[in-house]
Amino acid sequence: MALVGAALKLFLSLLLWLNSLTSSQGKENLWEYRYPFIRRASSFSSSSSSTSSNGPEKSYDYIIVGGGTAGCPLATTLSQNYSVLLLERGGAPFANVNVSFMQNFHISLADTSPKSASQTFISTDGVFNSRARVLGGGTCINAGFYTRASTSYVSKAGWDSKLVNESYPWIEKQIVHRPDLAPWQSAFRDSLLEVGVSPFNGFTYDHIYGTKIGGTIFDRFGRRHTAAELLASANPEKLNVIIHATVQKIVFDTTGKKPKAVGVIFKDENGNQHHAILSKRWRSEIIVSCGAIGSPQLLLLSGIGPKADLKKLNISVVFDNKFVGKGMSDNPLNTVFVPTKKPVKQSLIQAVGITKKGVYIEASSGFGQSLDSIRCNHGLVSAEIGQLSTIPPKRRTQEAIIAYRRSKRHLPHEAFRGGFIIEKIAYPLSTGQLSLLNTNVDDNPSVTFNYFSHPYDLQRCVDGIRVVEKIVSSRHFTNYTQCDKKTLENLLNMSVQANVNLIPKHTNDTQSLEQWCRDTVVTIWHYHGGCHVGKVVSPNYKVHGVHRLRVIDGSTFRESPGTNPQGTVMMMGRYMGVKILRQRLGKSSGI
């Protein structure tokens, strides 16, 4: 029976691989039959397009900018009753093998080509980071862990708990799975309990103190299921999804007492501009769901932001708001690399420890074992030996970065055996800001997170590393790794080399845990803020100072929900979609 199961798994994996391979070679895309409403931006007809007809312009009840983690469930929900245009700057994820398979997780993040699903940016802090550029957003490039927010978070956000508890299962039934626990994760779970991160809460989506196994958007075959798949539940007669559509600005009618959003200007994959028109019907809206980098960036490009900053770039001021782009925050991540004597099975986040010290402890192991794997920047599961950070800041040229990556080709594969114990600061108090460098929407804005600028964040990092020390020295973990017990100092030295950032290292890293935290900080891509509730948007996410414009995504968060935010961001899209429909149609509609 076990042999039959293994054969079936191999057969299904082969079918998935062949389907992805044929799709990537330009043959018939099977996903087009399931999502007939998805098309390229160059096919869009509008008044500013050379292909537009002389007939009346088509308008939409809702224009959603950003087909990501929040945008896809939001568009799906609103399409049940109204016409929706969803504009996404990236392509479709369904035939992209780097998105679809867990074994290629690191390759997608390392791909810096213009068509990559991931767009790299480096914060002014010197930390490498990524933003999604694909339909499905961050759910296409993340580590897949799924959890809900805590009940206290929901209450603090002012959300309707009943509707929240109806919205989460809508997501979970479609794309969330229970993980098959990898050996590294089993040893990590047992070690968490051994060192006192208790109780054991079993498999649960709930965010509660102790050790638990969470959900994942990877199925048992290692296939990723993204927010883009939620579009399958949409009304195909009322939804239009346009990919490779890069929105350059929101258009406003400024003739009234208050500016009113009336449409957007976007460019297609060929660089041609198009104009999408918002319906004049009552309560029609443009909704920005571009994420914590893209949403404040688009507001600024559209004339909503600090007046002085906008004028420097010759952007016409629609509404002067000094808070746009402020309050940016990223949960700092520090990792300890634990070597093993033999290769370990790849795993991303499955088991987590939710401590009362204000830190979360997670783990990952292994990598895709292809010959090209060693040349990649593996991000979260990085085990590169060498420090780009040894290059002085003024000499960090593109050539120097390329030379650094080239040097990694000669690293032995043994350097990639093992995995990481990860500690992430919950609810960091350190904040920064985002500002435009130019008016090109394709370019990353300047982003600063000010990691560990608040002393409490630094203290929590030290507390977290001390928990990690206990874990790697625990009986369960040393039995699994079959390595001699390493002193914390040796492990920290390895991890200084394994973490890749542009922060100059100090020779006394292992003598001062505070310094080690500062020098080895990386990201787990849970950055948020820039369009805070009360500062940039109302509690209903309507943008201050203008009509018919909302922001619905993680840029409105002051804190990142749960150990990993993707579940709550998807829930938020569904939640606000239902709420908007109820407000427009009335509760008697049964929505």
Automatic annotation (TrEMBL):
Task: Tell me its family.
Answer: Belongs to the GMC oxidoreductase family.
User: Which residues does the annotation say bind FAD?
Assistant: 88-89, 134, 247, 525-526, 554, 565-566
Gene3D superfamilies, alphabetized = 3.30.410.40, FAD/NAD(P)-binding domain (3.50.50.60)
Q: Which SUPFAM superfamilies match?
A: FAD-linked reductases, C-terminal domain (SSF54373), FAD/NAD(P)-binding domain (SSF51905)
- Cysteines engaged in disulfide bonds, as pairs: 461-517
Q: Which cofactor does it need?
A: FAD
Q: What is this protein called?
A: Glucose-methanol-choline oxidoreductase N-terminal domain-containing protein
**UniProt signal peptide:** 1-26
Q: Respond yes or no to whether keyword Flavoprotein is given for this record.
A: yes
Q: Where is the Glucose-methanol-choline oxidoreductase N-terminal domain?
A: 132-155, 291-305
Q: Which UniProt keywords apply?
A: Disulfide bond, FAD, Flavoprotein, Signal
Give the source species. Answer: Ilex paraguariensis
